[in-house]
Amino acid sequence: MQIDRDNGTVRFSNGLEICPALTQDAFRALPAGSKARSQDYGTLPWIHYHLSGGQINGKELLVSLCFYDQLLVFVSVSADLYPPGPKDWSNYSLEVEAATKQFHDRLLEQMLGNPSKGAGFLLGRLPDVKETLERPLRWEFAWGSVFSSHDSRGGGTDITVRYGTRLEEANKAYQRRSAAR
């Protein structure tokens, strides 16, 4: 996986390339788009597509693209550090989530340098589970930002590539649309 510092394009080892200008229709026309699992959570025109991003360092990358109608709002990526088997709450582990967060942090620091907000690894020591999960990191660029964080409510640990103010703009458009109904 590689995130282009100049424009926010995300490239994966399986050949998938997600650029900020990608529309939902263009994504669906791609081979990866036709195989992706879509989920709308009952909030159309918001829609998420879930697919594989190949592997990095032997770990499978799980990718989610979020669109508001045709607009790509963000890309979310998570390395799968769980052992083989069912992927459900019965196997959930804060220790694995912390290891995932550390994996993401190291990857992003190697790729993007020191974060703009948040602290990198502390004086050569690895933080404990709680400290790791509560330490979001953020890299800011002219085109948007990259986050490494853990969602304590939803339980997920992700790298999120956000494009400018698209999320805020899409939320406002959805609120206006919902109020007009």
Q: What's the short story on this structure?
A:
The chain is α+β, with helices and mostly antiparallel strands and 181 residues long.
In words, what does this structure look like?
With 181 residues, this protein is an alpha+beta fold. The chain has one domain. 28% of the residues lie in helices and 33% in strands. It contains five helices and ten strands. The protein has helices at residues 24-29, 31-35, 94-112, 129-133, 166-180; strands at 2-3, 10-11, 17-18, 37-39, 46-56, 59-68, 71-80, 137-141, 144-150, 157-163. It has a seven-stranded antiparallel sheet with strand order 4-5-6-7-10-9-8. It has a three-stranded antiparallel sheet with strand order 1-2-3, with no helix packed on it. The longest helix has 19 residues, at 94-112. It is globular and about 45 Å long.
Q: Any idea how many domains? A: 1
Number of separate strands: 10
Mean pLDDT reading? 92
Structural class call reads alpha+beta
Q: What is the H/E order?
A: EEEHHEEEEHHEEEH
Read across the widest sheet, the strand sequence of neighbours is 4-5-6-7-10-9-8
Q: In percent, how helical is the residue content?
A: 25-40%
Taking all Cα atoms into account, the compactness measure Rg is 17 Å
Major β-sheet profile:
7 strands, antiparallel
Describe how the helices and strands are arranged.
Blueprint: E1 2-3, E2 10-11, E3 17-18, H1 24-29, H2 31-35, E4 37-39, E5 46-56, E6 59-68, E7 71-80, H3 94-112, H4 129-133, E8 137-141, E9 144-150, E10 157-163, H5 166-180
Antiparallel strand pairs: 1-2, 2-3, 4-5, 5-6, 6-7, 7-10, 8-9, 9-10
